[in-house]
Amino acid sequence: MEPRKIYDLEERTALYAERIRDFCFTLPKNEVNNEYISQLLRAGSSPGSNYIEANESIGDKDFLMKIKVCRREAKESSYWLRLVITNNTLDAENERSALRQEAKELVLIFTSIIKKRGES
To answer: Per the domain annotation, does 3 fall within a domain?
Structure first.
């Protein structure tokens, strides 16, 4: 069953970060994966923290810059999700797929916010 969509973006990005964290705990540990996991944890938690910063921005330019960082980090987390080694277990592959879909949706949301503010 897919998680219910959250429409509060601050909460949604926090839940995404929590799911990334929990997913990383399930992954096999080895020299390569440890680096991927580290990158994934950073990129996966960044959209939420930057969104909080955007909401506390000091102006439109600052807001847009932080939203662009949110979008960039959501894209990057999808990249690390692609590379991370899961040992092809069904549960891990399903969660990876769901997390990549959520990253894609977050990118679309942040892109929409940027477009509404007049930039691309």
So the answer is: no
Cα 57 to Cα 69, 71, 108: the distances in Å are: 13, 16, 21
Residue 4 located in a structural domain: no
Q: Domain range holding 23? A: 9-116
When pLDDT is cut at 50, 70 and 90, the band that residue 98 belongs to is very high
Length of the chain in terms of residues written = 120
Does residue 2 lie within any of the structural domains? no
Tell me the pLDDT tens digit for each residue of 48-72: 999 999 999 899 999 999 999 999 9
pTM, rounded to two decimals? 0.90
b/e burial code for range 96-107 (CB count within 10 A of at least 16 → b): beebeebbeebb
